[in-house]
Amino acid sequence: MTAPDFPYPHGVGDDGAGDPDGHRDVPGDDGYDRPEEGPAATGPDQGPPDRPVDPAESSDGGEADEPEEPLDSGDVIRRLADLLGGATIGLGDVRVRGQNATGHGAVAIGTVNVTTAGTDGTGRIWYERLSETDVRELAQGYAPTSSDQQLDRHLKRRHLVCLSGPSSSGRFTSAVLATVRRHGHDRACVLGAEQPDDLLGPSERLPGGRGYVLRLADTAANAVDGFTLVALAARAEATGMTLILVGDFSRRRQDLAGHVVEHRVPPAVEVFRARLRQQLTGRCVGWCPDGCDGICVERYLDDGCVTHPLLSAYLAGEPRPGEVVPVVELIARSVPHGPALTERLEQLLPRQLRERATQILDIGRHDGPDGVDGWAADQARAFRLACAVLAGQPVAEIRQAAERLAGADLTGIPSTGPRLRGPDLDTLLGSTLRQAVVVVSDERAAGGQRIEFGTGSEQLRSTLLEVAWTDWWLPGQLLGWLADLVRSDVPGVRQAAAGAIGWSAGRDVRAALETVGDLARERRAGVRQAAAIVLVAMAMQPGLRQRVRTELDQWAAGPAAHLRDTVARAYGLGLARLWPDAALTQLRLVAQARMQRRNNSVVRGLVEVYRDGHAATLVPELVDWTASEDPEVRLHAARTLRVLADRWAEPPREHWPELLDLVRRRIVGPGDVAALWAAALGMPQTAYRSWRTLGFWLNRADGDPEVAAHCLALLRHVIAGRPPLCHRLDHQIRHVWRPIMPRNDLLDAVHALIDEDLS
Questions:
Q1: Could you tell me the pTM of the whole model?
Q2: For residues 510 and 501, what is the distance between their CA atoms, to the nearest angstrom?
Q3: Residue 453's Cα: distance from chain center in Å?
């Protein structure tokens, strides 16, 4: 919760401090600086900048004057999850998605603590501790396999094991749970390293007594040699830790004899049962009349699902666990029965889904050789693919995007082509795609219509992209088209296209990184915002996280201002939830750039770290920022305090400032919060709003003894040993707060603090 502006009737002259930012009473002000990019705005909804702007002081990166749509990280992640098939970064955690997380052989992680990195600054090594809650949830949805016991026996004799198996087979989850059985639910960690021998550096000492799982790409698995394994095993034994290397070691069995355990894939039906049972725990799915005892869940599993002809045939084909889990997730959302389950399965089973996508795009075969009512086949195909990429956007924008992809002016054939209204639009979509989408009337949208994918049909979007990628267009052509859309003037189009580029990284990560690198260098802030969304989408695919981390490390430490700004934006749009410690390190590097004086990218990233439950780490770090020799770093620390101070605790403690409530709960120290307040109140660029917020705190605290007592205790820390702040506080009480809060008794107590400190 954030507080409204404190109502000051005074201007700068009345305030008496000569604040350079002047009077501001901006409706709906969220505490962030406006404008974020370009010159100061002059409209009624935007106040002047925090300080006078020197025309000669241009940012080091150069800016294009462009309005930028503010985005919430949660909204960004939810939209990307629809396209990426359910993968997500939860609020504070990466939610567990089953025996294998959505993606290729991956498991989603809990609260991530990046606590080590290569000393050469490349960030080649880090580990992420899994939360106990998510580990237990993961275990509940896991289908045991016979190789689990073999793995346990090896770990009793050795501290290092290579677990071999194909991707999406559950091998990674098996390794994680093996470390849990060995070390406990709160000591399982995911390890990141480009090569196993990176762990042999003299400074790469990982905390002992824990279990670490390192996933290796095929090339890295094939490159592992016996000496590296022996050295790693010796180090693991010396520290009492367990290290499991996960990858496809099928070609190295003889070379690595004694170290390799072959992962055996559990039967698909058991994976389905275990995961759906875990998903439905605590839910009544059988309309039990006299209270639910959970038997209805087993009945639904046995009689409703695994015996269903479509599902039975699918599971008999032994799909990998990573392929079964998305099917379970979609069934668990609505728990369909009978005909509804049949309809649902026809929509979501991979083979049926692929067939539907192929039918939608194969215009010549399914819609006749002459196209669709005057549209050429490639033009109609481009339109249908654009519907998948730009789901939720106006029909007019989808049509323009299709024109770019088809390389033809679709508006140039109005006499024979459809007008994209009513039945004409239905014909162009085709019966299969029309069943999956909803055409929404929206007067605010260009053309009055938007196209959205209906509930349960979200997975068709990524399947259409997959079919287009493999069957109809060259990857470079699609990436070029998507990059062109990212450079659009329409924010929704930019953001949707960015998600599709992030999806493409799962098929060609190098090409996707080259594309996002070009976008991140753009002068336009909206394009860099979209580039940040690409990075978030890539990081939502666990197998790509190491590549994303490496790229962020290089950009943050490099000289390119726009690349560094994109790093900050990516953390602000969700990556801070995944890598909070790395976010603090890299945001400090970004904060040093002069370009950031006029941007909120760094502050938004820091606030995202705070929102994710890392206040205890963030606040002391910001105190360290206030002591930096770099004025930009100090400025961002003060700006962040100003934004955090505007947040209010959730009910039932909504009358508490959130920071003050954290002090009360001893999550953050009063001295640290006081140091940040002192910096924000004393810095000319942030003083005006900070004094306003402090006044609002005192206004709300008056009449609540507990809040008032904590406010006074904090203020005692703020002014202790700082005579200039004492004098300014005295002025605020006499000339600003007292006239507008004449009956506020708390001000007398604050004044007594001043007399006490100055005496």
A1: 0.70
A2: 12
A3: 22
